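2024-03-11 09:14:02 INFO receiving multi-entity request
2024-03-11 09:14:02 INFO entity count = two
2024-03-11 09:14:03 INFO echoing inputs for audit
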Amino acid sequence: MVNDKYDVIVIGGGPAGIISAVTARKYYPDKSILLIKSVKKGVIPCGIPYMFNSLKNPEDNALGNAPLEKNKVDIMVDEVVKVLRKVKSIKTKGGKTLKYEKLVLAMGSNPILPPIKGLDKKIVFPIYKDMDYLKDLKEKLAEAKNIVIIGGGFIGVEFADEFSNIKGKNVSLVEMFPYLLLNSFDVEFGEMVMSKLEAKGVKLLLSRKVEEVLDSGARLSDGETIPADMVILGIGASPNTKLAEKSGLDIGRGKGIWVDEYMRTADPDVFAVGDCVGKRDFFTRKNLPVMLASTATAEARVAGANLFKLKVVRENKGTIAIYSTYVDGLALGSAGLTESTAKSEGFEVEVGLAEAPDKHPAALPGTSKIKLKLIFSKQSGIILGGQVAGGISAGEIINIIGMAIQKRVSATELETLQLATHPYLTAPPTMYPLVLAAQDAVGRI
Amino acid sequence: MVNDKYDVIVIGGGPAGIISAVTARKYYPDKSILLIKSVKKGVIPCGIPYMFNSLKNPEDNALGNAPLEKNKVDIMVDEVVKVLRKVKSIKTKGGKTLKYEKLVLAMGSNPILPPIKGLDKKIVFPIYKDMDYLKDLKEKLAEAKNIVIIGGGFIGVEFADEFSNIKGKNVSLVEMFPYLLLNSFDVEFGEMVMSKLEAKGVKLLLSRKVEEVLDSGARLSDGETIPADMVILGIGASPNTKLAEKSGLDIGRGKGIWVDEYMRTADPDVFAVGDCVGKRDFFTRKNLPVMLASTATAEARVAGANLFKLKVVRENKGTIAIYSTYVDGLALGSAGLTESTAKSEGFEVEVGLAEAPDKHPAALPGTSKIKLKLIFSKQSGIILGGQVAGGISAGEIINIIGMAIQKRVSATELETLQLATHPYLTAPPTMYPLVLAAQDAVGRI
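2024-03-11 09:21:47 INFO inference complete, emitting structure
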């Protein structure tokens, strides 16, 4: 089935790899394309927390081969161990040597293993994007009573929310900082999540670290030992650059592979996309350690289109941190810089705040409160970031803010933005929160 | 309570008037401001259809005085019958003469009374934005069995949806064109609404007009007579420009009051905002008959800030049609030009289509399908419009599209847009519908 020569070889079976291959097919219908993945059956990364209770069947979160097959992309399960760039070929663990015209590196990231003693204990589980591994984890979860989650970022928070929905589980969340989600939200938003989780019975162990995992417990930095039948590592991930380093490709100032505006590495025939690539912040050009499927797929579309010719002039203007999450009915989103990050980067900022119902009048059944914060450059009035909490629709409100950031919209533009409003769908036109928050900031700019 | 001289007088108590007054207060804290309204208790315009069943109490949809009182805006219930611009004063029906420094006209619109015989029958009800009138209508509705709604635009569709939720009502909707919502949606979206309403038992009488209202029925243009205990006029509205015309102000090429970029009429001391003002289309500069609270409030913010000085350079770049509606669980939004309007305006267009689940994986409970259409200028690739149908989040997705239109975003920019995605909140990153639709169009541009 697999040939020994392809026009395009993509290494990596996650969203970045898949979208690179599919986009390449779209732009280059006549090229032969191969995707090599190391895991037989992958999973949709952001759906992982929901495989344990929300989804009836973990297989519902499988990352299937259908889009690849539909786009006539050959598939091989193997691990690439070497890239011989001079002769444009790769070698696999399975002993294959394949030649390429264009290579796309989409090897993703590896879970960070923090310097904690006892990580080799049987009760410790990093989160791998591997269906069989996660199914096994779900089975083990059924027998666990005391679950300790390490890390109060997105992964930790979403696992804590999901696990605490299962009857009979005691869930503890350990975070070294005094707030949750501190990487992407200002503290007032983190506090909303903390209240939600505490109300569900999740034990928040803040300003503490796990120092050692024991056979059936975890010893914290304050000396306390808590019982644990299962320890989940939700610390984050680091770019998987091993193959790129071995192949003599530049690793940027951050820890990811260096790429140009069109996702080309220093070698014009080798592209790189997704978690394994270094990101430059949209505002500062500094390294931005963002690893998200949405960022990865945006990069993959740039790479896929531009493999053989820069067919359409595009650019990667830099990466914005743009996320959303959902905790016990509360949707939260963050885009761009937080107030605290903006200040620590040296920006002079003005903040605009607003609260409004997400339906109108607020007496309509099912109305939630939207809380919104926008961060502007004080002098220039340009939007630097925003955060929102509310009902389901907050998940798309953050994408309005994301668009505003990417188009460098000013507070006065936002203040007079034309909007669609409807009783069942949005805040009232008189107090649409994006407009109110911009107006609030303009008053002080 | 009311003085005989004000720095700012606002005529009109709807959203445009209220937001003009509130914004003026924000920018000019020391000025005296009076708002004159002709109806004692107004209502939130877009909430009107939901006063009959969704809201327990019609009073929940009242447009209260609280924001005015909080902002120290005096209120007077009276009708202004004359503006004496040379001496900068107004005369009211109640016999008052008041002087102003700056005047804001926000008189709104009047329901269109179509050329139908028998509109004076007791069973005929235009929709006025008046709490007492609507409460009375609700009482009469309780006794009506056969209800005929004339007009298949937003008002008619939302009334038909709401009334058909009440047990024992036979609801018919008469529309002269063969599709519903034809002003703002292409036919494939109108068809979705038609299916929804028909499934609820609403009788759609398309490609027909009501020729005459009888004592207890309506005679249609095809000769059929249908029983009616109540006839609702949902035809639309026309700008209320009577006072402006009497005052010698320019009425533009459309039917509304002419204003400049800062909402000033030909008289620099008289501003006008909202439904009574002529709109210029964002793309063509032609008259655009859009009358929405969201447009009105955006204009009011421009006027309110710039009454005494153009304090902040702003502009009204022209109006986009941007709406949303909600029919029996299906949310729909439209922004900018539809495919058919764009073509009839002479644009060479390329269309991009996409479908995706609004959660991911789609097996998550409560997942709806999003259907999205984007319209681009074929040669320049700039977005001209978009339409979306789906779950609740479609109500904010249309505002992402609205932002893209107002910032003249191109298809290639949308294709690589950075987005927040989350299993419970959005489509998957691999098939985010805005990106997919842009990609679909780019393939043909």
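2024-03-11 09:21:48 INFO post-check: Residues 5-108+238-305 of chain A form a domain with the FAD/NAD(P)-binding domain fold (CATH 3.50.50.60).
2024-03-11 09:21:48 INFO post-check: The first strand of chain A starts at residue 5 and ends at 11.
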